Amino acid sequence: MLIVSTVPELHRALADHRAVGRSVGFVPTMGFLHEGHLSLVRRARQENGAVVVSIFVNPAQFAPTEDLDRYPRDVERDSALCRAEGCDILFVPKPEEMYPDGFSTYVSVEGLSSRLEGTFRPTHFRGVATVVLKLFLLVRPDRAYFGQKDAQQCAVIAAMVRDLAVPVRLVVVPTVRESDGLAMSSRNVYLSPDERKRAPVLYRALSRAAERIAAGERDAARLSAGITAAIMEQSPSAVDYAAVVDPLTLEPVDALAPGSDVLIPVAVRFGTTRLIDNIIVRVP
Ligand code: AMP
Questions:
Q1: Of 62, 93, 245, 268, which is most buried with the most CB atoms under 10 A?
Q2: What is the Å distance from ligand 1's center to 215 Cα?
Q3: Which helix (H) or strand (E) holds 46?
Q4: Verdict on whether the full-model pTM lies above 0.85
Q5: CA of 96: how far to CAs of 72, 100, 171, 177, in Å?
Q6: CB–CB of 30/56 below 8 Å?
Q7: Which run of H or of E encompasses 232?
Q8: What pLDDT was estimated at residue 284?
């Protein structure tokens, strides 16, 4: 595995794979890797001749009040994990490499970016779309791998790829969970032992909602009220939202239509830690 931090090094490393006609699978991350990230790397490994992973804690997707400075980092451990998964190129750019002096171009996916997470993090998806498009242009992957855990991010990037005719195939990989259901996240290390015990309520509440849909519930307001009530039993600092939406447009659904898919995303705060999770349910 080659570890590169500059664009010329990245291009040289990629040229060797392209010269022999290998397809390129790309996994963008912010590092502090866990099994969720590694499931993306494994999928990329299965489907491509060459695998590129990036680690970049992207300042543009953090608001000034957010956790950019304390975001967990361990590039040494991450590179050992990537090597063990058969990654070919690990791209770890410095902020100046991605945002050189005078950087002034941003990608805004309107509409989708202002719903759900966008209400609480108004500049977040502009930062995500900008860095992901730049990484796509640098790596020029055939396929790029994203986690279902960040469902809105998947929807925003899919819209950007469609609208700007970006030549990449997006692959969405299922959420990897701890044994008690908590979705794996680099931010889970922020949870105190007591918060960690309460955090699995997100997935329990989502699973309960899926059961209620299977049992015939079709009213979105009742479903989201049920999810919020279940989560409130664990006394979080806040339930930012619990919604029932269309998986592509993220528009709220009122009555669940038989045969449709609905996305049920939640965002919950325990102390200063903000957790998100979601499930997609096919309505019988
Ligand atoms: P991050 O490092 O948080 O930016 O995540 C990098 C990629 O890994 C994104 O596509 C995430 O959706 C994905 N990811 C993060 N956590 C998980 C998880 N628990 N299961 C599957 N994919 C995940």
A1: 268
A2: 31
A3: helix 35-47
A4: yes
A5: 20, 5, 29, 34
A6: yes
A7: helix 220-232
A8: 97
Q: How far is the C-alpha of 79 from the C-alpha of 267, rounded, in Å?
A: 30
Identify which of 155, 282, 116 has the alpha carbon closest to the alpha carbon of residue 214: 282
Whole-number pLDDT of residue 81: 98
What would the pLDDT profile of 225-239 be if each residue is shown by its tens digit?
A: 999 999 999 999 999
Give dist(CA 198, CA 191) in Å, integer: 10
For residues 280 and 246, the answer to whether their CB atoms sit within 8 Å is no
What is the Å distance from ligand 1's center to 81 Cα?
15
Which residue's C-alpha comes closest to atom 7 of ligand 1? Answer: 29
Q: Which two tokens stand for residue 145?
A: 């791998």
| Domain 2-173: assigned CATH number | 3.40.50.620
Report the alpha-carbon distance of residue 51 to residue 143 in Å, rounded: 10
Between CA 244 and CA 185 the distance in angstroms is 22
| Ligand 1 atom closest to Cα of residue 184 | 19
pLDDT at 70: 96
Q: What is the pLDDT of residue 208?
A: 98
**Probe ligand 1: pick from 26, 29, 148, 179, max atoms within 8 Å of CB?**
29
**Where are the extended beta strands (E) located within the chain?**
2-4, 24-29, 50-55, 89-91, 143-147, 169-173, 238-242, 261-270, 273-282
Widest CA span in the chain: 58
The full set of domain ranges for the chain reads 2-173, 186-279
Q: Which of 165, 207, 188 is nearest to 270 (CA)?
A: 188
Regions of the chain with pLDDT less than 70: none
**What is the architecture of the domain spanning 186-279?**
2-Layer Sandwich (3.30)
Instruction: Tell me the residue type at 126.
Output: R
